[in-house]
Amino acid sequence: MTRCSFVTWLCYSLCIAQSQADLPTLKPPDPIAIRPLLPSDAPLLEEFLTRLSDETRYLRFLATIRRFTPEQLEHLTHIRPDRDVALAAVTSNPRGEEIVGVARYAGLSDPRKAEFALVVRDDLQGHGIGTELMQALIEIAHDQGLACLEGLVLATNHKMLELMSHLGFQVMPDAQDPTMRRVVLNLAVHAAANAEADPDLISSL
């Protein structure tokens, strides 16, 4: 995939499901666009991360972070183009764009593997944004020739583990830390399974 077609493919609009039986108190989200996270997004990313609850921020970074330094924001918005991918789910309002979710992967020492991370704003969780971000990330990883995506998730992060299972990840105990779960997706197996899947099946995770 060329860089031009890669960016064009990413910048498509996604209308997220607007009725969630299990989340009746949430307002339906506005139409979402998924696009690359850019270096110029540092202010938007800082606002997004600041709005996360302490719990969600901890589940994402596995650390208590109250405020992000300019160096941390630079690290999060500047990727290695040949090894990493970072996607932002954004919505538009009269003030401009607003980030509501981020998914990324970083290449590991084994060039066939990458580690992923995902976070969605608290008030918009359960509307399919995380699913759409991960599906886009998985498709890119497959197109870029990776063999697998993997990550570490807290055993108490039941929503994330449920989403990973739904997406086809294997969930297993981490040999080094019993409080963590290792999730692994074989991209070739996933692509083959998707080719046979019912196209009308839409997740609300």
Descriptive notes:
There is one protein chain. The protein is of the alpha+beta class and 205 residues long. It is 34% helix and 29% strand. It is built from seven helices and eight strands. Strands 1-2-3-4-5-6-8-7 form an eight-stranded mixed sheet, sandwiched between helices. Helix 2 (42-51) crosses helix 4. Mean pLDDT is 83; it is low at 1-28 and 200-205.
In short:
Helix content is 34%, strand content 29%. The chain has helices spanning 3-10, 42-51, 54-61, 70-77, 129-143, 158-167, 187-196, and strands spanning 12-14, 32-36, 85-93, 96-107, 113-120, 148-154, 170-174, 177-186. Helix 2 packs across helix 4 (70-77).
Task: Summarize this structure as a short list of keywords or feature phrases.
205 residues; alpha+beta; eight-stranded mixed β-sheet; disordered C terminus
Q: What is this structure's SSE topology?
A:
Blueprint: H1 3-10, E1 12-14, E2 32-36, H2 42-51, H3 54-61, H4 70-77, E3 85-93, E4 96-107, E5 113-120, H5 129-143, E6 148-154, H6 158-167, E7 170-174, E8 177-186, H7 187-196
Parallel strand pairs: 5-6
Antiparallel strand pairs: 1-2, 2-3, 3-4, 4-5, 6-8, 7-8
